[in-house]
Amino acid sequence: MTLETDIALGLLQLVALSIPPIAVLIKMLRAADDLTWRLRKLSFGLAITSVISFIGTGAAVVVFLLGQAALPASLVAAMSLAVVGLVPFALFTGVLYVEHKRSFA
């Protein structure tokens, strides 16, 4: 493997390892009753921005890897689904934001 491929795979691992802690932080944010609405809004904005950044990173890495090697269609589909699978998480975070806005704003 080349250095670029190693870096790309490392980025995919970073994305995969970062999503569970974000989910835990969102759960903790929902349970925190003593935060002001302004701080809650900022926190949700940061979480959504983080997830969107990871979606972009994953998509860029998948495009890079597709250009580097002739991958089987099943692997291309699996990599694409992994990136697309982050989109519902970002949307879910947005739904939680709307719920919190009704509760705390």
Automatic annotation (TrEMBL):
The chain crosses the membrane at residues 6-26, 46-67, 73-98. Keywords: Membrane, Transmembrane, Transmembrane helix. This is Uncharacterized protein. It comes from Halomarina rubra.
